[in-house]
Amino acid sequence: MESAIPSHLQTVRSRHRRVPDDYAPPYPSFVARHKPAVTRVIMAYFGVQYRGERSAAATDALAQIATRFARENSPTHWDRAQYVDQAGFTNVVSVAYWDDAGRFDAWFDGAREAWTGSGASDGVGRFIEVLRPHVARYETLFSSLGRPEGVAVLADGMSGEVQEHAYWGGMRDRIPLSQTDAMTPGGEPRVIRDGARIRVVAHDNLCLIRSGQDWSDTEAAERKMYLDDVEPVLREGMDFLRDDGVPIGCYANRYMRVVDAEGRPTEKSYGQSWWKSLAALERWAESHPTHVRIFGAAMKYLSTLGPNAKLRLYHEVTLAGADEQFFEYLGCHERTGMLTAVQVARATTP
User: Fold this and answer.
1) Phi and psi (nearest 5°) for 260?
2) 3-class SS at 228?
3) Chain-centroid distance, C-alpha 153
4) Which of 164, 203, 228, 289 has the maximal Cβ count within 10 Å?
5) Which one-letter DSSP state was computed for residue 332?
6) Residue 194 near residue 32, CB atoms below 8 Å
């Protein structure tokens, strides 16, 4: 049994784990392992936002970013997904990953200017949301081996079975920084305006989670069980966070369906949300009725199928420092992504 924290990031703890050293999880899970030379990863979300049928401008924008992803210093991996937000706008999000900050920096300035600069005023909302965390500031978890997703595609490989999972607090315990740091948020979101562009400067220890499901390997009976018994409960929870998550610390939530190169829905989905803190995410996961129902439906599903379950589950959770974030919006409504955090800050300022 391995620790989820790689050996080169382990240190003497000043903050204890929530389980004893002899804890044995009830089922196997795995984490991504980067080469020790990798010190930072980049997660860059490029979004297009529109209402109604997709316009030619939106189609052109999606083709443009795909072309840029194929240029020099391009990402190691990228994928695309879409969802309808709380204001009724379709958002198509292309998320790209790098493990070399120099390559990203060389690529990003031109891409940013093309995406949200003056040449992008085509009536379609656009946004850029980037985190570039040190590897001590994020964790991954996979229910099975053989098909990495998200940032794990960049990894050198996967771990063996890890100890820190299947208990409340495991998410925190898998983040190397948690060994010595409470990772509490600090500062208030603020706005910098650059013409029509709106830049959001968030706060320290902003939390991002991407949590995915892949049912493409399931056979008929299992697929029906997932789509009839689990997915509707998951969607209910995701819709709650999308529409009413702000009071519990969720700035924005996107429950997205992954699409292929032609824009057709695949049998993969993921929730992607911005949280004020890891603690707020933990409270929702541990005690809120919407997540309690998700957890209950998932446990019933997995206990019924046992090791024969073909559903693949994964997530990545990041706590980004204030200097590891970039958020920029052009022509988007005010509850898009981290624009919501600014509304929250204004509402709570005396």
Assistant:
1) -85, -175
2) helix
3) 14
4) 164
5) -
6) no
**Sequence letter at residue 269:** S
Amino acid residing at 107:
W
Environment class of 270 (CB within 10 Å of its CB; exposed 0-12, middle 13-18, buried 19+): buried
Q: What is the pLDDT of residue 121?
A: 66
Residues 6+ apart with CB under 8 A from 335: 85, 86, 87, 252, 343
315 has catalytic annotation: yes
All residue ranges of the chain with pLDDT < 70 are 119, 121, 345-350
What is the structure's pLDDT at 270? 97
Give the alpha-carbon dihedral of 213, 215, 221, 225, to 10 degrees.
20
Pair of tokens at residue 216: 């493409």
Out of 77, 165, 291, 315, which one is annotated catalytic?
315
Tell me the two tokens of residue 9.
């990031």
Residue count of the chain: 350
Nearest to 252 by CA among 329, 165, 146: 329
Selection from 55, 4, 16, 39 nearest residue 135 by Cα: 39
- Secondary element (H or E) of residue 317: strand 312-320
Structure confidence at residue 237 (pLDDT): 94
Tens of pLDDT, residue by residue over 143-174, are: 999 899 999 999 999 999 999 998 889 999 99
> Which pLDDT value is given to residue 348?
60
Backbone φ, ψ for residue 149 (5° rounding): -130, 160
Copy the structure tokens of residue 50: 């529109």
CB 277 within 8 A of CB 271: no
Q: Which of 1, 97, 101 is nearest to 46 (CA)?
A: 97
First to last CA, the chain: 51
b/e 44-60 (16+ beta carbons within 10 angstroms → b) = bbbbbbbeeeeeeebee
How many angstroms separate the CA atoms of 244 and 242, rounded? 6
Residue 173's region, left for phi above 0, alpha for psi from -120 to 50, else beta, is alpha
Q: Given this model, what pLDDT does residue 347 score?
A: 62
CA 276, distance to chain mean position in Å, is 14
